[in-house]
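Case study 2.
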Amino acid sequence: MARTRLSLAQARRIALAAQGFGEKRPESPTTRHITRALDRSHLLQIDSVNVLVRAHYMPLFSRLGAYERDLLEKAAYHPKKRATFEYWGHEASLIRLDLQPLFRWRMARAAKGEGIYGGLARFGQEKRAFIEEVRREIAERGPIGAGELTGGGKGKGSWWGWSDGKRALEWLFWAGEVTTATRRGFERLYDLPERVIPADILNAPTPPEAEAQRELLKLSIQALGIASERCLRDYFRIGPTDAKARIPELVEAGDLLPVTVEGWNGPVYLDPSARMPRRVDARALVSPFDPIVWERTRTERLFDFHYRIEIYTPAEKREYGYYCLPFLLGEDIVARLDLKADRAAGRLIVHSIHPEHHAAPDAIAPALGEELRLMADWLGLSDIAAPKAWRGRLGV
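Prediction:
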């Protein structure tokens, strides 16, 4: 039987529709809109970079516009309104609460030292008694941060120079023996799962590994619409061996439809329930941590857009800037902007704007100016500072 053949434009529209782009933004986003967006993407990546706004807030802004960030805070951490839990989904993530049982296989592997960083795995083997002491202290005192542990020690150096107490907490977090109750600023406060995650979720049956992986891959294709094997397994960071075993099972069950896409090599899979609108009329500044650009080879195939975040690139070697956001207009990525929120001055700083080769500055500037104003208002910034050559075009 011949496979369905899709053009690149069709694949792009499927991918954008799956992620909720192109739908009309609500005038006043509510908890219902937040829930719907989470139902679609399943998780939000967390990252410490705060030059503009924390990573987990941005995907909702890109889709919903200027929503109240407190709505997400409540969904993430409110004891009675919690709709997510923190764990390793696509890196550190806020994940839909009802999906917690699907990650227990990963927790069980981590407890055996599998699938986690080598140094942390060794720490788990060598410091079992100390780790158990930390778990007991969390049970007695939680929720608490790493710096509040008795005898947790001090970190060495900066950033990843974790103390032994922090290592113990991260091992327990990977193994599912502690979780994030809330955050203080950006610092995790750890507690026991039974005091954070509702009993009906914790008491739900634990699926076998293979079943859980199949379910996660099915959620991945629903969120992506169309994907290669690499894209599919990247969404929830499922390893190549596991993905290669599960994908044929999903194909046989009809949960993945093999198709061919113009310009894509190798197997490509379509969500059987995917929507393919006749057109997508999107307008969004997109975070580097947004699912639509997570897997960079996919971004290049879909949009002919070579994208790398340059935070870790020495300043003199950066091509586009420290924190560059793609600008999605219609069905295409037409520019990238290096942005910064200067909160003290109440200003959204546009360090640079780089249109793509096919995008005329005057054609994209009006929509870009509107999106920048929307972002500034959302972040509580009263002014926009843009490059001189763009100020008139943007109307800022």
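The chain has 15 helices and 14 strands.
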